[in-house]
Here is the input.
Amino acid sequence: MDKLSAHLTEVLSNSPYKLVISAPVDKTQKYRKIAINLKKDYYQAEKYTQKQVFHENFSKEEIKEFCMGLLSGQYRELNAWDGEYNYNIKISKKGKVFLGKKRSENQPELLTEHNRKKEYILSEGHIIEPLIDMGIFTKTGKVASSMHDKYKQINRFVEIIDDAIRGKDIEELKVVDFGCGKSYLTFIMYYYFTEIKGIKVNMVGLDLKKEVIERCNSISRKYGYENLHFEVGDINGYKFSGTVDMVIALHACDTATDYALFNAVKWGAEMIFSAPCCQHELNAQIKSDEFSILTRYGIIKERVSALLTDSIRGNLLVHCGYKTQILEFIDYGHTPKNIMIRAVKSNMTEKYKKEALDEVLRIKEEFDLSPTLLELLRKGDMINE
Here is the structure.
């Protein structure tokens, strides 16, 4: 292995921008090839199975050890390109190591910040059954010509979740998806957690329509998603045995969102993702003598009420100990732009939490509001007034 180590040192000393490890020693190897690309100051390995690709990052100091491990009994060939030369390391069946080097005019394209194609988490070329059934992917794993916008929208949703779990050492997740409907994104999430992130996940989808739930359970069995099942039930009063790590509520209508958020806080969920819709409650309540300009025109009143609703929800989650962000989120269907509330449990000062609540109480007083989530949290003794 000293010769292999020396050859790898020589290749890596030229800062190759792309390496490919291939030729597995037998069919038991999980990955058919590993492509390694130089980013700004680190290397990213793309490990390809027949249907999927897994990503892992390495510092420039770590990449040699990673390559050594793969070429020491698992794979027999490495190719590398530095922009001028192509390097080729081959290992014979008897373990002899050879290094070739030649000037090459046919170098792989160097991905720069200007020509880099956006890397989507749900990447093309893989058989992702939910995306195929939705018509987003063809049977060969390519984006259908008329579905690029929806493909981007679905990836945006996955990115929002990926940002929240990045850097966390998560081996297992219990997830409740309120108001799952036909569950297109529920299936996508299950695929993302299990196949891309390698997380053991137990997911429950909840909806009021029995026929929809039966269909979703049937599809889950078809995909072989053993730990994803669906139940008929109402968000208000839903009971879940055990702990819940993540709560998702996409387009739960009006105050159904409040009940979903309340349950999440009550269960102590680590992460909450909610894309509210139909914020009618405050629109029927809002009034103000001092700021009547905001309530005089119907369309303005409606939009102000919707924004106030979600601002109040965000602040109440902060008061309950969640780092909360209000993000732009585009649904995969033909709907207007909307927002997503992303809340992650975090340590914050009591002063900061109190300030968040005080803002809600001042808005409540000014516009004569009675937000459902505030009342639910009060009744549940989760508000520290």
Notes: The first strand starts at residue 18 and ends at 24. DSSP finds ten helices and 14 strands in the chain.
